[in-house]
Write a structure and sequence with these properties.
Layout lengths: L9 H9 L17 H6 L30 H20 L7 H10 L2 H16 L3 H22 L2 H11 L9 H15 L7 H31 L1 E4 L9 H13 L6 E4 L2 H10 L3 H12 L11 H17 L5 H5 L8 H32 L8 H16 L3 H5 L4 H16 L1 E5 L13 E7 L5 E10 L9 E6 L10 E9 L12 H18 L13 H11 L6 H7 L11 H9 L5 H18 L12 H8 L16 H4 L10 H18 L7 H12 L7 H9 L5 H7 L13
Parallel strand pairs: 5-7
Antiparallel strand pairs: 1-2, 3-4, 4-5, 6-7
Helix pairs in contact: 1-8, 3-4, 3-5, 3-6, 3-7, 6-9, 7-8, 9-13, 11-12, 11-16, 15-16, 15-23, 18-19, 19-20, 20-26, 26-29, 27-28
Length: about 725
Amino acid sequence: MNKPLLTLTALAVTLALSACSENKQAQSGAEKSPTTAQHATQKQTFDNVLLQEFKGPYGGVPQFDKMNLDDLKPALEKAMEINLAEVDAIANNSAAPTFENTIVELERAGSELQRVFTYWGIWSSNMSSPEFREIQKEMSPKLSAFFSKITQNDALFQRVKAVYESDELDTVTDEEQRVTWLTYNSFASNGATLDEEAKERYAQINQELAKLHTQFSTNVLADEENYVIYITEDQLDGLPQSFINAAAATAKDKGQEGKYAITNTRSSMDPFLTYSTNRELREEVWKTYYNRGDNNDEFDNKALIKQILTLRHERVKLLGYDNYAEWRLEDRMAKNPENAMELMMKVWPAALARVEEEVADMQAIADEEGADITIKPWDYRFYAEKVRKAKYDLDSDEVKQYLQLDKLREAMFYVAGRLFNFSFKPVAEGSVPVFHPDVKVWEVNDKTTGDFIGLWYLDPYARQGKRSGAWATMYRSHTTFDGKKTVLSSNNSNFVKPPEGETALISWDDAETYFHEFGHALHFLSATVKYPTSQSGVRDYTEFQSQLLERWLLTDEVINNYLVHHETGKPIPAELVEKINAAATFNEGFKTTEYMASAIMDLLYHTTDPADIDPDSFEREQLSALGMPEEIVMRHRSPHFGHVFSGEGYAAAYYGYMWAEVLTSDAAEAFAEAPGGFYDKEVSDRLVKYLFSVRNAMDPAEAYRKFRGRDANVEALMRDRGFPVESEENGGN
């Protein structure tokens, strides 16, 4: 039996070892003897709602209407106490270690803590407040110390190791083998094999990092909340009416009625830079947004970057790795930073060449108009839109009139019905608790059998205390090892909320993001795995499923039925669709370069000795060496690069979007070549079977080969982006 090295990050340890079994409630059906963990704690009744089993319909749902911030700290402390008792019971079991009494018991442990984390996540991402941030600041290092107690429990590790090395694994299922490998390596790669002195330092580093990650994200959020630019009616030239209405409503909400609020978020910044004719204001909005965390004040993040990198480097040196990225990528599809950087460098020159062409086109228009300017970063979106109109006669605002948020949601449901056989039915308002009135809930069922699959929550609009961007999450994942658990999934966005009674219109890019995040939700909802650890993701793979779903936005079925004008109800004209298709690779230089600059910098930060890094100059120097165009900046500049510095989820792994794009482009060609196109049943069935339902119960590379019959090929990505393809002979990734 092969036992590949599959390391997990400290974050994954959080999921895999203590709170991994999202809301693992008591088994339904016939009574069973108490398990090891249940012997330790027995079933408890809690007054604190954050600790209680989910209640109500659909197998129980979070009691968001009863969550109280005062309950959070005591709930966390109690949940950690319970989880440690469970872990100690497993570690000190006198019976010989087996898969059932060790690995399965770890899968079962931590249900109370996972429930608390569900509420913690809402306060952290959807409705943060100064009061929560104080609790977060206090509890983050305590949580880190708690997780270290588990990973450094030698008696527990020895039991896991015994199962990992036993012949018993030859008799269990493939998923159970993989869960065992993942569990073992989550210990081994996070300090379990160190001596006592090194273990102590490892735990200290994790606690220090927890504090720094929290401070980094708090600083970024402070800059997003504190910097709002208010403009007046005479400064609205060029802005679409829908944007003006939303900016007026936002200003009114902030006590500035009669003005127009440009908030310091991408959803506000991007359209302003695209349409405003006021160049001075564009520059101000641009600088305000891209200088988040870099204002040399109390919320400046540059010093934190140095501290974070230094501690990460020290931690992996304890484990014997040369650098953080080497440790981080060992269990990813890329396997090592060299492979990840090689992919970046295959695409980077073509992206730069395309930017040069794009800037030349923009400068020509500016010169023709007598603007007497040289294109700067705050001009790029504005003049790119002019080029789009000139080259393709395509007006982004005209397209936007057909992109209604509600209709796009219906389109996503249609796609899910065709590919996954899911149906979506609105849940009656008030029957499922929500944490904000904007949140709506749908029931998801199998169209053929009527079987209940789960719930889908949608929180679409930006607001104070909500982090920027778009994301998907689960409140409960599908498992069957301890009684079938149904999925509670959620999508979260930051669209600008329209005034009461008006339709929310979004950009084409935002529509793609909407589909993208729904792809994550479908990944959750389609799971058929048995164990919680199988829900853990491989970062440079899990973005693939969501990126792929973006492709269905441009299918005829979606275009003809759901892209309808918000006033007339008429479908988007065929000639406008032709223009969209013709411009499909337009501005690809900008989009690819701003993303890849962030991905390359992430790898450079984590393959360079931090002693050689000055956060104030490292970004500038490295990008200059790479030939970064001065008209573009990184999508996420270092001082607000939350993916990388407010946690470890994407650290040394932001390249994963590009790696996943290779899979996406290659898989899209499989659909394009199929007789039924993007709704081909045979290809769709393979997609669900091998690439969605198995989650991490199968090695991603093996899963993709089962779907495609071969590895993915990078040339598919180059074709997709309209870049030159030098050779068709290169193998895949």
